Amino acid sequence: xxxxxxxxxxxTGQTLSFFDVSSGSRTHHLEGLIAxxxxxxxxxxxxxxxxxxxxxxxxxxEHGDGGQEISVVDCNSxxxxxxxxxxxxxxPHYLALDEKRGILYASVExxxxxxxxxxxxxxxxxxxxxxxxxxxxxxxxxxxxMTPDGTKAYTCNKEAGFxxxxxxxxxxxxxxxxxxxxxxxxxxxxxxxxxxFPAPSIPVGDVKESIQPSIQVVDTVSDKIIRSIxxxxxxxxxxxxxxxxxxxxxxxxxxxxxxxxxxSSSNGTLLVLSSEKDDYQQLAALEVGKVPLTILSSPxxxxxxxSNVMSGTVTxxxxxxxxxxxxxxVDTVQRVDKKLHQGAHGLALIP
Length: 351
Fold this sequence. Notes:
By secondary structure, the chain is mostly beta strands. The chain has no helices and 30 strands.
């Protein structure tokens, strides 16, 4: 099938690139985005891209002021057409769309109330582009997953030892799920039955306790962890494709880990596990770039895309053969005015 266009942001480059998926060629390069773009979400109904801006510079553990905007990009003109102001909340990161109710949800790390790290999830009415919901998670929520019916969300609270369960309709946090060592970017089955959380969170500083990397499986009916899947290496991100396979972006820990927590600057791995019904068997372990941070797949489950934040590249994977098809260069040169190179992050597939 035809796969259309892949959109990808460079965080430190403050750009948005568009690639033809079939040929791998860059078809457009939008410069001058406000600092610093993180995640992307595509709304097929309006042909608009939403871009979150988490920080003025830096990353979770070391950053400037929190961003308070979400950019709106018209995919036809390839131009920014609006900025959604989310103040008083700040540091928006992950985005999810409730098409039925016309709400754009975003995780935020602060500003829900006056307490430190008062993060959670905000809901934005897409007609007015104003905040209509502010739901606290009791931590600086970084990522989240939403059930397909738009009723519940589960937040990744990074180093906090719990996942927040959010009632999106009732606009409240209803429970906490303990998770030892915290977690990173989660994923959810298309049915919404199971959610998956990579644990532990990326280690920073002197870590005295060694926690074996795993995927913690959450039952979204009981809101409990029902299984732990060992994965060997730490994972910063994961994705569930249309066949319910788990695509996991893994990093290495090494002696050269000086800038991104304890993460090594060596290349990472895309680990592919079979679906729940096939008991999560390993299907492939493919070398990708440095620190895979976002993963996306095509609706037919034949292609996957892995953004490698420290390499500034995207690895395109053929899931039918479990091989790397090509590497797209997004932004591979570190800016002299940026301490940490984060050259490829948020992804969106545009038909």
